[in-house]
UniProtKB/TrEMBL annotation:
This is Sec translocon accessory complex subunit YajC. It is found in: Cell membrane. The keyword Protein transport applies. Its main location: membrane. Keywords: Cell membrane, Membrane, Protein transport, Translocation, Transmembrane, Transmembrane helix, Transport. The keyword Transmembrane helix applies. One of its GO terms (cellular component) is plasma membrane. The SecYEG-SecDF-YajC-YidC holo-translocon (HTL) protein secretase/insertase is a supercomplex required for protein secretion, insertion of proteins into membranes, and assembly of membrane protein complexes. While the SecYEG complex is essential for assembly of a number of proteins and complexes, the SecDF-YajC-YidC subcomplex facilitates these functions. PANTHER family: SEC TRANSLOCON ACCESSORY COMPLEX SUBUNIT YAJC. Part of the SecDF-YidC-YajC translocase complex. The SecDF-YidC-YajC translocase forms a supercomplex with SecYEG, called the holo-translocon (HTL). The chain crosses the membrane at residues 26-42. GO terms for biological process: protein transport. The gene is yajC.
Length: 120
C-alpha cells in the first residue's frame, strides 16, 4: 500500500516541468477578466465622470439638478469660482449646496435666464 503512495507522488512531480507556455495559459484568464472589467465597468464610469465634470463647468441659472442626497432643484445662483451653488427646491425655498455634491444635471438651459440677477 505504501508503494502506491510513493509512486503517486513521483507521478505528480514528474509532470510539473511544463514550461513557460503553461504559465502564460494560467494567467490568460486573469488578463481576460481584467479586460472585460475595464471595458464594461471602469471605462464607462470614467467617461461619465468626465461628462459630469464638463456639465458642472457649464452649469447655469435655470438648470435642473439632482444632488447626491436626492434633492432635486433649480439653480438660482452660480459663481464659476465658488464651490457653492444656490438651488431652489420649492417656491421661495433656497438652499446652498456644494458643487461637488451635484450628481446629475437633468436639464440644461440653452441660454442663461438673466445672469445679471445671479451676480448680485
Amino acid at each position: 500500500m505504501s508503494n502506491m503512495l510513493i509512486s503517486a507522488a513521483y507521478a505528480q512531480s514528474a509532470g510539473a516541468g511544463g514550461g513557460s507556455g503553461s504559465t502564460l495559459m494560467s494567467f490568460l484568464p486573469f488578463v481576460a477578466v481584467f479586460a472585460i472589467m475595464y471595458f464594461l465597468l471602469i471605462r464607462p464610469q470614467q467617461q461619465r465622470q468626465k461628462q459630469l465634470k464638463s456639465e458642472l463647468k457649464t452649469l447655469r441659472r435655470g438648470d435642473r439638478i439632482v444632488t447626491a442626497g436626492g434633492v432635486v432643484g433649480i439653480v438660482q445662483r452660480n459663481k464659476e469660482d465658488a464651490p457653492e451653488v444656490e438651488v431652489e427646491i420649492a417656491p421661495n425655498v433656497r438652499i446652498t449646496v456644494l458643487r461637488d455634491t451635484i450628481s446629475t444635471v437633468l436639464t440644461s438651459s440653452a441660454k442663461p435666464a438673466n445672469d445679471a440677477a445671479a451676480t448680485k
